[in-house]
Amino acid sequence: MNTPKTRSMPLTAAMARFVDVADLIRSRSDVDEVLRDLCDDYRMARHLLMKAKKEKPKPTEKISEYSSLVDELEDEVIRYLLGTEQKPKNGQP
User: Fold this and answer.
1) Is it the case that residue 15 has pLDDT exceeding 70?
2) pLDDT of 80-89, one tens digit each?
3) Can you give the residue ranges of every domain in the chain?
4) Within 10 Å of residue 62's Cβ, how many Cβ atoms?
5) By Cβ atoms counted within 10 A, which residue in 30, 52, 75, 88 is the most buried?
């Protein structure tokens, strides 16, 4: 079971990026597993991007892929928080 301390770790990157809604992220994450998962995915993508940027020689393709993933996850977190997350229709992904 996650303790409050370990539960907040995945949220840190998202709260730092979205300072204006950090309190909303914190409060909703207590009851919203999807939001926690999105924040954890975002944290991991940022971590991998920063790690790739430190590699020598720079893996430009990997950096580009991680940058795109980070951007997509930022958009997804915001859409989810705003309640406009696209839901699959008729069981279609």
Assistant:
1) yes
2) 988 844 455 5
3) 7-81
4) 15
5) 52
Q: Is 62 helix (H, G, I), strand (E, B) or coil?
A: helix
Measured distance CA(60)–CA(47) in Å, rounded: 16
Q: Which of 34-43, 59-68, 79-88 has the lowest mean pLDDT?
A: 79-88
If you search the block for the tokens 């991007």, which residue do you land on? 49
List CB contacts of 29: < 8 A, sequence separation 6 or more.
7, 8, 11, 35, 36, 39
* Structure-token pair, residue 74: 């930022």
The C-alpha atoms of residue 46 and residue 66 are separated, in whole angstroms, by 8
